Fold this sequence. Notes:
The structure holds two protein chains of two kinds. Chain A is an alpha/beta fold. Chain A has helices at residues 7-17, 37-46, 107-118, 148-152, 156-161; strands at 3-4, 22-25, 29-32, 54-62, 67-75, 80-87, 96-98, 121-123. Chain B is 38% helix and 7% strand.
Amino acid sequence: MTVAWRGDQFAAAVETFAPGSVAGHNDSDTWVYPSSLAEVAMGLRDRPEFRFDLLSSISAVDYIDHYEVVYHLTSLPRNMKAVLKVRCGEGREEPTLPSVTGVWRGAELQEREAWDLMGIRFEGHPNHKRIMLWEGFPGHPLRKDFVTYSQSVIDPEQAAAE
Amino acid sequence: MNMNPQEPTAPYGIDPSNPLFNVTWDMDREEGRAVNLMKAARTEQYPEPLVDIPDELRRSALVTSVDTLLNWARKSSVFPLQFGLACCVFEMIATAMSRFDISRFGMEAFRATPRQADLMIVAGTVTWKMAVPLRRLFDQMSEPKWVISMGVCATSGGPYYQSYSVVPGVNHIVPVDVYVPGCPPRPDALLYGIMQLHEKVKRYTLTHTPAGQE
Ligand code: SF4
């Protein structure tokens, strides 16, 4: 069985190699600051006590007053998993995080998906464009303030003028 | 938030010399333009292509028998286009397999190219992004051509009705001859739809309603 890290132990373990990076924890999850995400991610992948070589998934959450990005990490050599969360600042304007494509190559498509559907920007992403919707789609549809029907009806005159 | 489609602009914070990006960006932008134009233009549904049954007295015996022969030939060798979009396609595949055996209707040859196909079975969810290729495939099919809308997704959007990315009925994109309801329709339902299409094909005449016209 893959062993899940407990939040408090994981937070303490992250603090030992990246002091000041942990913003908080609960029973199962650990929050880190966006500014230290790159350092923490690199450490989690390379340090022998973690070896988190697989980024299982990236999800983005809209909490209305802020956005949060969740990284599910799996370590195949040590058979364990952990949940890392990053809060993208306050407010709804331009949530931005550093990209982790340099650490886990598989993050590329998932970060594009988070950009496409939730509008989270990833600094330093090599190919930062939409992945599932078409270019020119208005807005990011999984945001809580996206009004589906009115936004999917497009004014024909406006589109013809373009 | 901007409610209107945007002109596709170069994405955020990208290195233009990156081959990942610069090889495909022009294609992405073209695609985005085409999808937005189609989404803006296709707000009306096509009516179902109706066959009017002409007055028997006005049909000469010769034309009638030519019609009968032609329509019999057409209905007995409908070549469907391989066109699966979502979950419904598995029922279409099951229809083609030995248990339900679509070849009893002269249809075993699913064509991989639209130029050899007469029937487009739209099996699955049609997204706006797929609507552009769908219309292009329909335009490439040689006349006479027919369309079956299989499943509620293709018929009206179904579970994804009023979604941001799903066409509210494929009859906004192409004229549909037969609708097969269900989510997904069983193979028997699809076969019944095909038999209904056969009945329809039999009623075309050369003089009044040539087959396959929009
Ligand atoms: S109608 Fe149902 S089975 Fe068919 S494509 Fe839609 S969701 Fe899938």
